[in-house]
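Hey, I was hoping to borrow your eyes for a little while. I've been staring at a protein lately and its backbone has me curious. You're getting the sequence in one-letter code plus the fold written as tokens. Would you mind checking whether the tokens look sensible for this chain? Here's the protein in full, and shout if anything looks odd to you:
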Amino acid sequence: MADLAGLIREADSVVALTGAGISVPSGIPDFRSPGTGLWTDVDPMEVAHIDAWRADPERFWSFYGERFQTLRDKEPNGAHRALAELERRGKLDAVITQNIDMLHRKAGTADLVEVHGTIESSSCLRCRARWALDEVRERMAEDPAGVPRCDCSRPLKPDVVLFGEYLPEEALERATQLCAGTDVLLCVGSSLEVYPVAQLPGVTWRAGGALAIVTMGPTPWDTRATVKLDGDVVGELEALIGAL
């Protein structure tokens, strides 16, 4: 922890990269943990692929709507708040997140790059109208099949990146630029294995920046990280705030 605090204290630029592990303490399961992951007992290619949305929006929204509902009342935890505090102190330039759960924004992070999109809204791919999450829930409840529909009658698609879709070009480009220009990339709660986001530590590494990893379990970058902490993300980041 002293090494991590020193690394951040001496850096001119720090960027955070977060994955599903930062939201687990808020009661949001990750994707693949046996017995608890979001993909337990379901094939994501059948329910969370863009082709599944096109072919069977009723089945798609039956799966997604239930999970949207579970996220409705989730609140940021100490790890989210710690990153927001680092930003307020001028120690963190931005947060790049793989998460769609809105918790960084709720915690107060101002400069947030959501490379996998967000559940905050859904859009119509025909007329490009966009609807906020509460409105989407109301439209789901009103539709006999449970499918939220645009005023033009087309099914809405959540503004998240589904399997079979490319990441938003603007978000990925911004994330890459941030990682190329930072002195320290602080990776929190991510296995760093899901591409194309998994390439970002390499961007920092090749540019001469340092990697600091705070996550349970191994990552492909552990041996090249200046600091690797395996403890609970909330405890580790709250301790970091105290150490600074």
The chain has a mean pLDDT of 90.
